Amino acid sequence: MSVSAAAERIERGIAGALRTGEPLARHTSFRIGGPASLHVVCDTLRDLSMVVETLSEEEVPWTVFGRGTNLLVSDSGYEGAVIVLGREFRRRDVQHDRIEAGAGCNLAGVVREAYSRGLSGLECAVGIPGTLGGAVTMNAGARDEWIGASVGSVTLLVPGEGLVRLRGSEVAWGYRSSGHLGDRGIVVEVEICVFPGDSAEIRRRMDESFRRRKTTQPLGVPSAGSVFVNPAGGSAGRLIESCGLKGRRVGGAAISEVHANFIVNEGGATARDVLELMHVARDTVKEEYGVELKTEIRFLGTFA
User: Fold this and answer.
1) Which residues are within 8 A (CB) of 42 and not within 5 positions of it... i.e. 6 or more apart?
2) Distance separating the N- and C-terminal Cα atoms of the chain
3) What is the model's pTM?
4) Residue 90 in contact with residue 129, Cβ under 8 Å?
5) What b-and-e string marks burial along 194-228, b requiring 16 or more CB atoms within 10 Å of the CB?
6) For 228-265, what is each residue's pLDDT tens digit?
7) Separation CA 57–CA 6 (nearest Å)
8) How far is CA 257 from the centre of its chain?
9) Residues 98, 104, 107, 112: what is their CA dihedral angle, to the nearest 10 degrees?
10) For the chain, does the N or the C end have fewer beta carbons within 10 angstroms?
11) Of 226, 241, 248, 282, catalytic
C-alpha cells in the first residue's frame, strides 16, 4: 500500500480537494473518529473514476462518505481513503413525476424541494439526516415506510466497468437494507418517483413524521441514529429500556434517556466508550430475553 504515491497522483489529477491525516470527528454526526490517511472530495465523475482507479492501483483501501451519519469511526482513524461526492453529485432536476438527484445531495434538501413543489412520495424521509446516496444504500425511512419504495432507478459507478443503471425493482430492498447495493458500486445518482399531491396533506404528513421523530429521538445531540436493527416483531429500544439501561454511561457516551436505541455523545466520547455501551446493551438483552440484537450502524477503522 502506498498512500503517499496515491496522494501525489490524485492531487495532480482532480479538481476537488485532498487532505491527508484529516480527523474524521469533523465529518461524522457522532463527532467521534481519528484521522483518515486521505480525505478526497470528488467534484466530477471523472474525478471519482480516476480516484478509485488510482487507489486500487496503489492498493489503498477506500470508502465513500456521505455526511458521516449511521457511522462509528475508530479512535485510531482509518488507514485508507475517504471519498466524498462533491459539486457535480449535489445537483438535482425536479419534474412533475420524478426527481433525478446526485447521491451527494442533502436528503433534507430533496425532501424540502418535493414539498415546495407539491410533490408526494418522500414524506417518510422527513427528519432523516445524511445524503440521498446514504439513505438509499441503507433504505432509510420509518418503521413501515422506506425510501426504496419510491426509487425508480439507481446509477452506480462500478470500478472497472463504468456506469451501471439499475431499475428500482432490481434492487433487493428490505428493512434497513438495499441488498448490498453499496458493495456493487458507488451510488452516484438516484431517480425518485413522486406524484402531485395536495400541499396541505403533504405538509400534514411531513409535520406528523417530524413531530414523531422530534418527540421520540434525541435530535440535536451528536449520535449515529439507531444503534440496533429492530428484531422481527419487536423494538430494540423497548428491549434495552426494559433492561433498565436508559441513561447508562461510559466515559462521554450514554444510552439516551429519550430513546434507548440511541447512544449519544455527551462530550468527549470515544469510539471505545460507544462500543462498550453497545456490548452492554446487546449482552444484557441477550441474557434477559434471548434476543440477539444486530447492529444498524456501520464501523470504520480498526476496533481492538
Assistant:
1) 14, 16, 48, 51, 83, 84, 85, 86, 89
2) 22
3) 0.91
4) no
5) beebeeeebeebbeebbeeeeeebbeeebbbbbbb
6) 999 988 899 999 999 999 999 999 999 999 999 999 99
7) 8
8) 23
9) -60
10) C
11) 226
3-class DSSP state of 174: strand
Alpha carbon 5 to its chain centroid, in Å, reads 30
pLDDT > 90? residue 96: no
Q: What is the mean pLDDT of residues 15-34?
A: 95
Compute CA distances 91 → 58, 102, 132, 181, 193, whole Å: 31, 6, 11, 22, 17
Residue type, 220: G
CA nearest 177: which of 293, 295, 275, 300?
295
Please state, in angstroms and rounded to a whole number, the distance separating the CA atoms of residues 48 and 64: 10
Catalytic one of 117, 176, 205, 298: 176
Quick check: is 296 catalytic? yes
Active site residue 226: yes
Cell numbers at residue 6, please?
496515491
223 noted as active-site residue: no
Measured CA to CA, the distance from residue 172 to residue 183 in angstroms comes to 13
Half-sphere exposure of 201 (CA within 13 A, CB side): 7
> Residue 76 CA to chain centroid, in angstroms?
21
